[in-house]
Design goal:
single chain; alpha+beta; YaeB-like fold; 3 helices; about 40% helix; globular
Length: about 110
Amino acid sequence: MATSIHKRASAKRDLVEHYVYFAEHAGIEIAERFLLNADKSFEDLSRHPGMGVAVSLRSPKLDGLRRWPVIGFEKILIFYLPRAGGVSIVHVLHAAQDWWSLLGIL
């Protein structure tokens, strides 16, 4: 069964920011591994979109939002919406960030 992964512009920016951070602070190999693991996590979520933890929101535009850690980078959280045949990746944020505000849900 084919699945789709849609990365919103916000998620793409987040991935670039994490990549640059890891490249500068941990080395290019870690940064590359982060991207590979993020893609693997996206693929897993597209096949099993219900496996993430539901995030309770008041915003109807993000109704159904879920979160799941990047494999091997458990402090980096993927925020996504299950969609017919796959997922829409909304943001990829560090757990220590004020992700409630960054998601615009407060």
